[in-house]
Amino acid sequence: MNATSDADFSGIPAPPPTTRPLAIANWLFVVAAMVVLIVLVGGITRLTESGLSITQWNPVTGVLPPLNDQAWQAEFDLYRQTPEFIYESGPAGMTLSDFKFIFFWEWFHRLIGRLIGMAFALPLAWFWIKGAIPAGYKPRLLALLALGGLQGTFGWLMVRSGLSGQMTDVSHFWLSVHLLTAFFTLGGLIWTALDLRMLARDPEARPAKLTGLATATALVLFVQLLFGAWVAGLNAGLASDTWPLMQGRFIPEFDTSKGMGWAMTHDPFLLHFLHRWWAWVVVGMLIWLARRVRQSERPASIAIHSAFGTQILLGIATVMTGVSLWLAVAHQLVGALLVAATAWGMHAAGKHR
Asked: Do residues 61 and 163 share a domain?
């Protein structure tokens, strides 16, 4: 009996004996862990204002950092021509030693990105050549590969936005595109790995479907992640160091002179306010999703509750410490884990309809 004769009504044939869905699922989980790591390092890069320290994009030669004093000085001279150095770092008296610190984080961030690309592309090619990819999954894996390529492009466009004109930081819009693409890729990796793990257990298993509740939860979480990226890009976390009030009041004063549309995308006080209170809408949706899958997949329910509970506490602590570096980094890390847990819960909801 051939594979196509065993196809279920979803249109995806059962895997032939040569396919290796469990091995591919485990590989995707490893890549997902690497994406979480790069989000963590990206948070450190942003919070230490290291993102503009490397002013060129050299995919091959940029793998190695400067190896001698002359090379270090050349990189430092390039950085000294940027608006960030001219208007911020230069007047603060930045030394070459200071520059090496920020250079390291941006270089490390880019290095992890390169490693993720290799960790995805090379095994994908091997699985493809060996005929190990189950029918129907090649387009999905290619889409994930394309997202990785886009992520690198978006990262460079983000950096370039801070190297021209009078801006001393990268565009918060490009920062949000860069971060949200990483989160979307992370969710896609988790979802695809879970589908393949089901297929390994049962050759007749169908891919999970995206339910209405899962879609609504994803949209609400997307808005929160977008606000969070803008808060980070505009340094809006520093707008208040008190909670729950801001400036001694529930709704802070903010600039509406250019209209509410501008205020909702640029004003740090309003964005800080929206980010801290939209979080509770997200919590409500996540509780609903977690309760829906509690009986069918209890570990996913526990993961969702644990992630959003920790994230709320870290968010409040980050505010009240005036954006402590490591608390803020932990907040971004748990944000990535929350995305992974939510993708797990969304998958569970679609698997047990």
From this structure: yes
